[in-house]
Amino acid sequence: MTRQAVIDKARQTLASGELFRTLSRRVAMPTESQNPDRAAEMRRYLDEEMIPALRELGFTCEVLTHPKAQAPFLVAERHEDDALPTVLGYGHGDVIRGQDDRWHEGLSPWRLTERDGIWYGRGVVDNKGQHTLNLEAMRALLAVRGRLGFNARWLIEMGEETGSPGLRELCEAHADRLRADLLLASDGPRIARRKPTLFLGSRGGLGFDLTIESRAGAHHSGNWGGLISNPGVLLAHAIAAMVGPNGQIRVPGWVPESIPDSVRRAVGQLAFEPGPGDPEIEPWWGEPGLTPAERVFAWCSCEVLAFETGNPRQPVNAIPPKAWARMQLRYVVGVDPDRLLGQLRQFLDRQGLSMVKIAPSRETMFRASRIDPSHPWVQWAAQSVQHTTGTAPAILPSLGGSLPNDVFTEVLGLPTVWVPHSYPGSANHAPNENVPVTVVDEGLGIMAGLYWDLGEAAARELAANPVPIDTR
Predict the structure, then answer these.
(1) What is the pTM of this model?
(2) C-alpha neighbours within 13 Å on the C-beta side of residue 446
(3) Measured between alpha carbons, how far is 444 from 425 in angstroms, rounded to an integer?
(4) How far from 392 is each of 201, 339, 388, 396, CA to CA, in Å?
(5) In terms of CB atoms within 10 Å, which end of the chain has fewer, N or C?
(6) Is residue 232 part of a domain?
(7) Angle value at C-alpha 331, between 326 and 335, nearest 5 degrees
(8) Which residues pair with 309 in a beta bridge?
(9) C-alpha 423: how far from its chain's center?
(10) pLDDT (tens digit, 9 = 90+) per residue, 152-184?
(11) Are residues 383 and 339 in the same domain?
């Protein structure tokens, strides 16, 4: 009974095809949380896949609901001893829309397919593949050790792709059932395909619409040009006032005062390794004076997702009556999310642009969160990953994207360590979502090593002497 035996056992589930068969069943379930017609699939994923898998590992399971959520939650627990550490695992079984007609020939979002050493299918990285991999590593540990050596809890939700409605409230209501010494979960991408990665939180996201409605209808641009305002021009000026020509955010309060030293040190160790098909990084874009890694992992960005005025497909010689833009702010810890739209209102009014209407979009997103990279559980996890892979992992204070880490740090007060089993070229949220088999293989070994180490003395010492998290 050795650490390496558990790692080998976990990796064998890939070599034998067992993992592929398990994930094939799960990918085949079209659990599109953005599609109200898929409600039955959400519950089926829990009833037919998650509950049997967790019960086989000795977990008790209960499906919970909340009035704010349209989809159910699964809470599972395996308790071995009060003196042992407790780890909370998390995953989401919902996926975004399949976009069936846009996949490469021969591929389908609802059929797991291997092609040239890469697995394709909706959810292979976001997030069915990632929590399936973790459960298989836990199964391997039980097979070799006969017990976990720690207490484990799982929370599987089915609404993450719609902003996790009800997750915060459910965790508040069931905090005692979900408390743990550590959140150890998997989502999001590595920094590079061949670089094991840990991340400790995520940037928050705010989606909002800017609209100018100048008048009831369009008017001839020859007869009225120079006499009436053009809402497209005005809205372009509003966006240009918010974001400079090099991508620098200009709205007061929309960026942090500084990057904490511990965060800057951690980000300073990171290097981008663009993969095939990735866009070339443009060093002139973004906050001046910051490195590319600092811009995406420790700073804020404001993006135009869509802009429309007039009829883009069939332009006519007329001044349009209306202009609209869908905007998105990705922000880090140090920015107050509850003041963002009010700060924008004040800013635009000072620019003489009070005609711009501001409204939050219907898409709910998550709040910024992170823990300090020097936290003992982070260093423990980094040592475990290096022991398994022979490579020091990249440590990202904040993932560039967003996920509900804030619920675990703010509501449950947990140190949060995420171990992603994806990579930048995964095309999640797009057609042809994929993961290289090499990433799956290494991920199985990493998780088996982490779970083994949770049952060792160092983890018991950390749990017995908890260090409060610093989320600044």
Answers:
(1) 0.92
(2) 30
(3) 20
(4) 19, 39, 10, 13
(5) N
(6) yes
(7) 120
(8) 323
(9) 12
(10) 999 999 999 999 999 999 999 999 999 999 999
(11) no
